[in-house]
Design goal:
Length: 285
């Protein structure tokens, strides 16, 4: 029997930001909460509604992984469309129980084969993995070929972040209040790396936000393949910061391919509304 392969990812991939025509890509939402208000359906609504709510609240935002039941429901939805296989590409298992819930749901369904990848990444890098998987599936590649090629994207990419306002990092317990007071006093901004193991790690502190953005970009250029690579630039609604980052990249190399995305609400909930992310993918030719 000929295989019909579906690609499933989650909303941290911002797959809804990608300009693609693949009808075999599906997404499961990872909801965000501000008080009792829930924000979901990011594939329909994008991230703007959550950004606006985040700017206008003093409450601590929360996120929640998709339940086993919700994941199982999505698996069944795809199965009922006639797919024989699902390649599930969720965010790094170090950020959420989404990966583990996928395995729990997989054990509860029959009649469809489900492969779950340990992606070790998130944000637009994850979205690029989903798009490439969908392309390869449409070309008739085998499950093993697709998994191998898609994981190469994770292995040949990196992603860096910085934030101008440390408030959300303090509220979410990722930075102590004492450290934030010192950082604010000296205008220190963190450079945060999405590590190869799929964790977020602060690797450097920089005096001034503009300096931190420049430092993030300098890290990207250390390993970027300027011929076969592409830069991913992510923001919330901080257009001035986005334009600053673009200008800095163009100063170094005006011919580079830059793709722009919103920072997924699930990530903005923890980083705040003033985050800038810069990453790269080196595609092997």
């Amino acid at each position: 029997m000929k295989k019909k392969i579906a690609i499933l990812t989650d909303s941290t991939s911002t797959i809804y930001n990608f300009d693609h025509q693949y009808d075999n890509i599906f997404m499961i939402n990872i909801p965000c909460f501000i008080g009792e208000e829930i924000f979901t359906d990011f594939d329909k609504n994008g991230d703007t509604l959550f950004y606006e709510a985040l700017k206008n609240t003093k409450l601590i935002p929360r996120t929640s992984q998709p339940s086993v039941g919700e994941t199982l429901e999505k698996f069944n939805e795809i199965k009922n469309l006639g797919y024989t296989d699902i390649i599930y590409i969720p965010l790094s298992k170090h950020f959420s129980g989404t990966y583990m819930n996928g395995h729990a749901s997989k054990d509860m369904i029959t009649g469809i084969n489900i492969e779950i990848l340990d992606t070790k990444t998130t944000v637009s890098i994850l979205g690029a993995m989903a798009v490439e998987a969908a392309r390869l599936a449409k070309e008739g590649k085998s499950l093993e070929e697709i998994k191998e090629e898609v994981l190469k994207i994770s292995e040949n990419s990196a992603y860096y972040l910085t934030v101008n306002d440390l408030t959300s990092l303090v509220k979410n317990g990722r930075l102590s209040y004492a450290k934030s007071k010192i950082a604010n006093l000296f205008r220190i901004k963190p450079v945060i790396l999405l590590t190869p193991e799929g964790r977020l790690e602060s690797i450097e502190n920089v005096r001034s936000y503009k300096g931190a953005i420049k430092k993030v970009i300098s890290y990207v250029f250390k390993n970027l393949d300027t011929i076969n690579g592409e830069i991913h630039l992510s923001y919330t609604d901080n257009i001035e910061d986005l334009e600053l980052a673009k200008a800095e990249i163009n100063k170094i190399n005006p011919d580079l391919k830059i793709k722009t995305f919103t920072i997924p609400s699930t990530v903005a909930a923890h980083l705040g509304i003033t985050a800038i992310g810069v990453g790269y993918i080196n595609y092997k030719k």
